[in-house]
Amino acid sequence: MVPKIRRGSRTHGLLVYLYGPGKRDEHVDAHLVGSWDGFAPDPGRDTSPDPDPKVTLARLTAALDLRVKQAGTTAPAQHVWHCSVRTDPGDRTLTDAEWNTVARRLVHAVNLAPEGDPDGCRWVAVRHAPDHIHILATMVRGDLRRPRMNYDFKKAQAECRRIEKEMGLRQLNPGDGTGAKSPTSAERFKAERTGRPEAPRETLREAVRHALAGTSTEEEFFSRLREAGLRVKIRTAPSGDAIGYNVALTGDRNRLGEPIWYPGSKLAPDLSLPKIRRRLADGIADQATQPAATSSRSDWSPPARERRNATGLAEHAAMLLDRGDDEAAAQLVGVGELLDAVAQTSPAATRAELGTAARYFERATRSHVRAEHADSRAIRSAARGIIQAGGALGRGEDGGTIAMLLSTMVLVVLAAARWHSARGHAQQAHASRQAAEHLRAAYGRAAATPMQALRDQGRALPQSERRIHEATIRAALPEAALRAESSSTKTDALTATLAQAERAGHDPKALLQQAIDMRELETAEDVSDVLVWRLRRLAQLPAHPGEAASRPKADTSRPNTPTSRTSNRTTPTGTRPAALNPRNRPPRR
């Protein structure tokens, strides 16, 4: 049950709309379901001998405005309180009597007309559709004082949550005031008329988020906005300093032909210029301050290297979220930027799912918990690196590293869901879980080819070698995880990865245990897949197994001990590094 509250100054005008046909003839059988005294005139169902809806509407207006006129200049200029209350599409249809109960409980909850108070404000509840009502109240009490209406929206939301539970309706997640502003009805109707898939407000919010992903300076942020094709207007103080910004879509104009501008703060609470400045204050981490790079092989493309680095930083962010302290709030901002960066540069096959995941997770980046943005510098640097490396191909090493990163991102957003749930942030936790579902779908598409190749390689291993690695897996993995694997893809891909790691000079047992100990595996949908990508990153194996055959084998005469992350970096002789090939050079922004 969703309440939406507005204030105005025209009682008659609002009643004309509520009893009229609507903007698209959607109003049917408009009638009162409740009023302040139960005897208010009803223009929709006038039972008088000679009914005239216009006359009855005028009588209803006069009755509602009586105290407003009596109060004279002491009445508030915006004296009309308007609240629409809508049930969920899956809910049952409420009766008029039930809607009357809903209306009475809401005007009581917000202190407009407390139960038993003879001086409560006058109000009516109009129903012109099966799934919602409109409550109209005039904000002058019988003693001609204004009602105390502090935090009316929060109080209405809380009462709706109680009504949902008592009436057996779908229980929505309570909000905390950090959500982005939804499009108005006028914006949605205009989008439909003009053929836009969504309201301009939503398109602009996503474009601003994309421009902010990995940005290091304010000037770069505004430059990216213009490169994205947005109109940008910077508001300045008399001193000449920028104090805000407005954005508009090209071609989105009002009836006077003027661009329709949206300030950043009206797109989302964290997109105002002061809050963007606080995010940028610490800048992007210098190379020296970042964790040691794990993927500096020159024979891998820039997008592949950046995604490998981002995978390690995402793992670190997940560990910080698992700790459960408030400082992890900064990691959520960085993870949101990383998702935006990946969505912008992903191949067409996964772009839609990643874009949807980033949209959901955007809600999870905002809460009332505050932390220093300096804590997110490293992961924001990873987002910047992905943007600067340009678009990734969906095949070869690029495609493999996309799957590697997405496998980790699923666990990161699930860690974010647990972090929010522990603090009672129901909307953010739900948004994180929704993002995880779309990330899983994107991962499935990105990982299909490389994982199938690995499974084929695992099945092709000699039986003796295969049995050795399967015994290693059984000894290291918990019995519950093994049961889960036996019902899905088994361990063929994991077996092939351990064999390749051993040929590269690693100790398979020690390396597998290191991958298992990195962090929890309970939330993994496929434990084998998660371990495969962790192992391939730790051992510096190609993310796309089709390239394994072309890699030079390590000297097997040395002891089988875990090597350092940089000890086995090799470049095939005669192969020009991808970063130096003009055709593979990423586009510059």
Count of all domains: 3
In percent, how helical is the residue content?
40-55%
Averaged pLDDT, please? 86
| Beginning-to-end CA distance, first to last residue | 45 Å
Main sheet, how many strands, which sense, barrel? 5 strands, antiparallel
Q: Strand order within the widest sheet?
A: 1-3-5-4-2
The percent range for strand residues is 5-15%
Overall form: elongated
Low-confidence segments, ≥5 residues, pLDDT <50?
Answer: 287-295, 548-589
The sequence of SSEs as H and E is: EHEHEHEEHHHHEEEHHHHHHHHHHHHH
The structure class reads: alpha+beta
Number of strands: 8
Number of helices: 20
Radius of gyration: 30 Å
Account of the 3D structure:
With 589 residues, the chain is an alpha+beta fold. The chain has helices spanning 11-19, 53-71, 96-109, 152-167, 185-194, 200-212, 218-227, 264-267, 273-280, 302-323, 329-345, 348-364, 377-389, 396-422, 426-459, 463-476, 479-486, 492-503, 508-517, 527-538; strands at residues 2-8, 31-35, 80-86, 122-129, 132-138, 231-236, 242-248, 262-263. It folds into three domains: 2-167, BirA Bifunctional Protein, domain 2; 185-280, no CATH class; 287-565, no CATH class. The strands form two sheets. A five-stranded antiparallel beta sheet has the order 1-3-5-4-2, with helices on both faces. The protein is elongated and about 95 Å long. The two termini are 45 Å apart.
